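User: Please predict structures.

Assistant: First:
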Amino acid sequence: MRAYLAVVSKARNRRISPHILESAGRAAAEAIPVPTDRLTPSRWTSGDGATVLLAWSNEPEHRLLPRPLTGGDERVLGYTGYLADPDIAEKELLKTADPAAAVESMGGVFAVFRAHRDGFEAATSIARVCPVYFTETTDFCFIGSRALLVHLTARAAETGLADPPVAHDVMALQPMIRHGFFTNDDTPFAGVRALPADAVLTAAPGRGVAVRGARRPGGRADARGRAGARGRGAAARPRRSWTPPRRSPGTASRSSWPCRAGATAASWRPC
């Protein structure tokens, strides 16, 4: 298992403080389901100290396994999951100017985390089996592979506490309670969201976080364009009037359903 956390300062040349880095280490012990004595940490820091990419792994060193962080002083790459052709894919992901196009052409199950002297990028595949989570505070951007890791580190930066309590987003838990899984990009943790599938997140000092989807023929960008065209066409056409169907005599109205046949609102269940 490999886990990642990137911290990017919103101000240029503002270094990530030791407090945040130490808090990230403590959060990793809580968020990564591996005994801490089996986790090996790695770190890359930009020259100005405004961007940091942290990695943790319990994988042994082996020629068939990727290193948690690969690259050099100017640019570094990490990814969760696996790439179908890692030798070629890693080089492509390190040098490409368009991570979305590179990810779209690659096989495997993965999420990409790439840091460099100008900022940071994260990318998800079209299946989003390996997720990416992110949040922002007043001064920093936090992006990682585990929602609790992102949340706890951001809370430490925001509160100044070494071991901050979790702040749950109670309303975001509604789809989880109803369906047993999240039907959107929310998480149980306040302020933390999941990056959509087939999307790229960028964060840079002085610019904050930006998210964009992949633009491809027939993809989301085209779908939005077609939806806009349909909307403009509908506006030009007159609206058709609609008459509700008439109820047969004796048919119960919708508002009376809970109480029909002597049922009460507390005992009524939908069919």
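Second:
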Amino acid sequence: MELSTLARIVIDTLITTETFPYMWRDPLMACARADDPLFLRLKEVVTPDHLMPDDLLKGAKSVIVYFIPFRREIGIDNSSNYPFASELWARAYIETNTLISTINERLSGFLSLHGYRSAITPPTHNFDPELLVSRWSHKHIGFIAGLGTFGLHRLLITPLGCCGRLGSIVTDAYIEPSKYQKEEICLERRGTKCSKCASRCPVQAIGSNGEFNRKECYRMLLENDRRYGHLPLTDVCGHCSCEVPCSYGVPTYQASQELP
């Protein structure tokens, strides 16, 4: 059995046996070559000090990226609490970050059993607090691995939508890379009027022409964290990913017309 297949089994098994399996749908997984030239482009499109796979693990050959999609009930609950994030959404964020850490630990152990090394990165809070950009962007790495394409809201839209969380792990095992997602998934980027994500943003941080106000977005995340002070750090919002045409799958024009 191929390593990629075994890695998928590890991820699938953990999601169905964790304490809160009702939060998630079946995951997606993809792989990228550690020497894919698109990694160097991240120093231009994300931040000049964005890490390369070899910075995390000398001799890296592959990067495994996976997307854990939320069940629609989670998105509906969050959307109904507009303009703030719902407590269920905040708890889903916490539990999914814990799940991602567990998946990475299990994947690392699995790879070690097969004689391979790996490097784990945290699921979140690996960003520059001033510039508000990540030095290891899971969503950009997901793009390189072919998991999906970017939407107007700057989130990665996968075949299972954008409403979920991403994780990744670097290894010196060679795993057959996935194919690039060549066609745009976002309706706006396909030339179809939508902009539902922009209209859902509580602080108008998303412009209809693709502009993005990071500071306004982050201000809203911190506001939600203050609302749920009884929970661990929950700098969340998620309204641009909930109950929009690309939330739970590939968006359609019909969905863009039916949603308010």
